[in-house]
Amino acid sequence: MTDIAIAGLQPLSTVDWPGKLAAVLFLQGCPWSCPYCHNYQILDPATPGAVPWEEVQRLLAKRQGLLDGVVFSGGEATRQRAVVEAAAEVKEMGFQVGLHTAGAYPSTFARLLDQNLVDWVGLDIKALPGDYQGVAGPAVSADKAQQSLELLLKSGVDYEVRFTLWQGGLDYAEKVAAWCQSQGVENFVLQRLQTQHLPPNYNPGPEVTNWGQAQAEEMLKQYEFPQSLVRV
């Protein structure tokens, strides 16, 4: 495995895969330009990886029986086709595989699902379908994200669909929750924007930062998701 570009490696995380102890691989590059991205330093796909795959192999060999799995994150993890081979190797070593994705590459996502290479997916929905260009860039269509959502819901793989509130306040989050419910989403997570690693040119307004967990939980109750969560 020499052609996967890894920007960073976190040996242990308790938050990137709910209920699991996992190592996290941050893969280099993303085709989207969300203004609030907290990993904006690793978005350039032309930047080479900083962590060799051999380092990942050594870590996992030492963590047999200690880690539950490995999360492939980003950037956009599915941008690199080599993620399929990497996930297969992680599975062969006896670990479960988690995936963070915004659904930008449904063909690669489909390969991971079809080959049973992922055990859990955190799928980020960025906005309502008609608003994707305003958040992810002028060349972006929501079609790929929606296609990936459909693939995920048909797969039977454990998942959460997440929306990070970055504009519009809870009124907008409510519209996103309603849209997700209409698509068949059962596990929905509303995330508070983490402001400590924001790009220097993005300044969230009070509608983004000044909302309460109890208020958000009450809003979500009307949709009766079998599983829903406000993550702060």
UniProtKB/TrEMBL annotation:
Q: Domain Radical SAM core: where? A: 16-232
Kindly state which keywords UniProt assigns to this record, in alphabetical order: Iron, Iron-sulfur, Metal-binding, S-adenosyl-L-methionine
Pfam families attached to this UniProt entry: Radical_SAM (PF04055)
Q: Quote the InterPro entries the UniProt record gives.
A: Aldolase_TIM, NrdG2, Radical_SAM_PqqE_MftC-like, rSAM, rSAM_sf
What's a Gene Ontology MF term here? catalytic activity
Reading the lineage from the top rank, the first entry is Bacteria
Protein name in UniProt: Anaerobic ribonucleoside-triphosphate reductase activating protein
Q: Which species? A: Scrofimicrobium appendicitidis
